[in-house]
Amino acid sequence: LKLQFLYFIEIAKMRSLMLLAAAVGCAADPNIWPLPRQYTNGTVTVTVDPGLSFTGTQSADLTMAYGRYKEQLFPHTGAQAGSLKSCQVTVADGSAKLVLGADESYTLDVSATGCKITAKTQFGAYHAMETLSQLVVFNFDSDAYVVKDTPWSITDSPRFEHREVLLDTSRHFQPIASLKNIITSFTYAKINTVHWHIVDEQSFPYGSPTYPKLAKMGAYSNFERFTQQDVKDVVEYARQRGVRVVVEIDTPGHAASWCKGHPEICPSPTCLMPLNPATNATFDLIKGLFKDVQDATIDGIFHIGGDEVNTGCWTKSSSISAWLQQHNMTADQGYEYFVGRVTDIVLDLGMIPTAWDELWTHFGTKLDKKTIIHQWHNGTIAKEATAAGYRVVWSSEPTWYLDHLQYTWQVLYQGDPCVGLTDAECSLVIGGGGEMWGSRVDTSDIQSTIWPKMAAIAERLWSDKSVTSIDEATPRIRYFRCLLNRRGVAAAPPSNKQAGSAPPTTGSCFDQ
Questions:
Q1: Which of 16, 219, 270, 510 lies deepest, with the highest CB count within 10 Å?
Q2: Beta strands 114-121; 106-111: pairing state
Q3: Is 442 exposed, middle or buried (0-12, 13-18, 19+ CB in 10 A)?
Q4: Spatial distance between the Cα atoms of 53 and 70, rounded to a whole number of angstroms
Q5: For every residue of 233-294, which 3-state class applies, written as one string?
């Protein structure tokens, strides 16, 4: 009863905010998520024809996007004809390569006389169409699609170039269909990167063509595996939607599942990780495995992990201990040696290594300057690394770790990758994201655990740094959650005190 009472108090607060937003009219932020960088609007309602066409720049990628967004814009059949019948799209490069730093800016103008999108790449055009799809609403009384408060003039671009969600397919397997559904949902909040934590100590689902025994022996089952073509399909599906895929193969820790297929690269049958640094067989396998991943992907960044390495198995192994002594190394120096060799493998493949922040804590400026530091511990790592000229991704635990179910979206909304940094240091922070570790989620609840909490992170990474008001964001995130539901995304109520939980009682989507 106490929980229900607190829930209804929270709902009353939210209703008050909705009424306030309605009272101030155009002064309230629009129901667009994430909030655009600059916009103006008027007071005129324009009807939109369900046969709306996108004219102008054509390319294979844009043609597919036009089809997707027409379906998304007009879910109700049989609607009345409208006055807005086309949208002119002008894209400087409609077949741009999807890379870190690709231009995602756009302008969108909607008025009674027309609709116009301009962008430098197709990725900016995708974002413009997403924004348009959030402006178009269905009026059930007139049976027509409308855009309220025109004329709209929006100029938009992201604050950070890297906006990720980590998806962990080792602790619980995620089928291809689930991954594609999740990737589609990312586009609704302009998230542009999947950090695919594809294997870990629990299971090895990735089917390496060069080392097939890794998945054959290391996967949970024959049904919970990815072929090389599966990975290529996911990468291409994401690319078509402007979403990069950065694969992580964590080494030398988190690798017990490797030992089932290749025990020769592990310290012993009873002490499985970190991987054995004393044999070239380990690095030969890593090189071949990384090359397989590179062949299946298109991104220039490769995440090597490197976190939570306990070298106890090395010191317990007589052969590894002897090897360390022979090379005048401590176990921690052996860790540095291992990381150095793996980094060299990635660089030799022409890729940029990213690693968890333990590598900075242990080795600092000994790391190759190309290395991107992924901060997950709270503290001063981002400031130290950027001050030394290294690039940083920021996903500080616990608040931006989506598996910490007790943290509400309001807590996540207060995070900022550049807190405490100078402007020069902040310029080296390429972005951040929410980390959806798989220990506590599977296909049944991953969407409701990611959403709507991830929306808070998405806005902090896209919108201007001045956009920080929880009160102003509350009516918009409630609206956005309902929009996700209408699009088939199992987003949980934003008022929930624990992510992924069901609403405690009956009621409207807007009241939960």
A1: 219
A2: antiparallel
A3: middle
A4: 8
A5: HHHHHHHCCCCEEEEEEEECCCCCCHHHHCHHHCCCCCCCCCCCCCCHHHHHHHHHHHHHHH
How far apart are the C-alpha atoms of 375 and 361, rounded to whole Å?
Answer: 10
Dist. CA 373–CA 389, nearest whole Å:
11
**Assigned token pair, 85:** 């019948």
- State pLDDT tens for residues 393-411: 999 999 999 999 999 999 9
Confirm whether 308 is a catalytic residue. Answer: yes
pTM given for the model: 0.94
> For the segment 69-121, what is each residue's pLDDT rounded down to a tens digit?
999 999 999 999 999 999 999 999 999 999 999 999 999 999 999 999 999 99
**Residues in Cβ contact with 6 at an 8 Å cutoff, skipping those fewer than 6 apart:** 497
Count of C-beta atoms within a 10 Å radius of residue 14: 19
Q: How far apart are CA 87 and CA 55, in angstroms?
A: 6
Which of 164, 308, 425, 435 does the annotation list as catalytic? 308
Residues in the chain: 512
- Nearby residues of 97 by Cβ (< 8 Å), 6 or more positions away: none
